[in-house]
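User: Here's a chain of 291 residues. Predict its fold as C-alpha cells.
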Amino acid sequence: MNIQVWTDTDLHGAGATLVLKWLYKDAKTFSINDVSEYTFTGKFKGALQSLDHYDRVYIVDLDLTPEQIKLADRDNVIVIDTHRNHTQHKQLYKKAKAILDDSYYSCVNLIYDKFGKHLQHLTEEQDLLIKYISAYDWYNTQYKESLKLNAIYYNLNSPKTEKFIAAFIDGYREFTIHEKNAIKLYFKKFKDQIDSGQVFTGMVKDYSVVATFANYAINELAHFLIKKYSTDISVIVNTQAKTVSFRRSKESDVDVSILAKKLCEGGGHASSAGGKLTDKFVNLTKTFVPC
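Assistant: Prediction complete.
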C-alpha cells in the first residue's frame, strides 16, 4: 500500500504522523509533507497530479478553510483533525472521509482511539512516546520529557517530521548527546527571550491579556507569561513570520479561537489558537501598556 501524509509542522503533527507510520508499518511507500495552514494550498495544488498514485492520502492536524476543503475533497483522502473551525465545516466534505472531532484536543489521541485495534502491536516505549507527545499538546508540564521532545523537534533541520520519526520510530528512549545539546540551546534561547523581551498588558472585553514579541519557544513563553502575570490570555507576536499566537489560562473560560478568527483571520482550539498579523489586531494592541 502507498501512503501519503500532509501534516502540520510541529511536534503534534509529527506525533500524529508517527502513529500513522506505525499503523502502516508494512506500507510500500510512506511519503510525508510538512506544511502549515498557510502553505498547504500552494503545495497541495502542486502535488495534485501525483495524488492518484497513493492508495490513501492523509491530511492531519491542519485547520483547513472551506476553500482548502474543496481542494482536498478527493476519494482517496482521509482528513483527521480536532480544530473547532474545521469541525464546523465537516459537511463540506463530499468525497473524502472526514474524521473531525473537536472533543479531542490531541490529534494524536484521536488517531490512536480510531485505529487502536490495529495498533496493539505497539511496544511500551512507543506507547510512552505517544503519552509524552499528547501531554505536550495539552501543555501538561508535569512531564518534562514532553518539553524536551518539542525542543528536539524544533531544532531539527527540514524535513523535520521525517527526521523526528526516524529518530523515534522505536518509541521513547534516552536522548543522545546531540539531542541533549539541542534541548539546552532551546531553553537558553527561551530564557534569553524572557530576559530581553518587553511585555505589555491590556484587556479584551472582560479578559486580561499580556503580550510580547518572540520568534522562538513560543508555546513555552506563552504559558510562562500566563503563570507569571496570572492573566487570562497570553499573546505572542512573531514579526518574522507575521503571525500571532493566542493561549489561555486553565482557569479562564475564554475561547481564544474566536479571537484568532475575528482579529487575525485564523482559528484553532478554545485554549490555543493563532492567525495572521493583521491591521485589526495591531489597532487593538494600541491600547496595551508596558507591564
